[in-house]
Specification:
By secondary structure, this protein is mainly alpha-helical. It contains 4 helices and 2 strands.
Length: about 100
Amino acid sequence: MVHKILQNMITDEKLDKYFDVTGRALKKLKLCCPEKTHLDKMAKDYLLMAESYFSDAQHFRDNLDYINAFASLNYAHGWLDAGARIGLWDVGHDSVLFTVD
């Protein structure tokens, strides 16, 4: 029952919005940690996690699994926000696409 309710609440428009926001955030960030440092490794790891969840979201959407698509987008953006918040990449103080400042 809960699954059906959630499925009806996650519309194409909502997914489009979150794909857009997360996609723009992925394109905006710039790696800024010194290469071959622990922070550089963390930045690349966080980015890989975000990109992987974003890709998973696309896969789920293609298979009409909107609940898992939406969940994956939220995880992807969570990794992006976490990385931006701790300074793993430069996001230009963008507090619209990221939870910074």
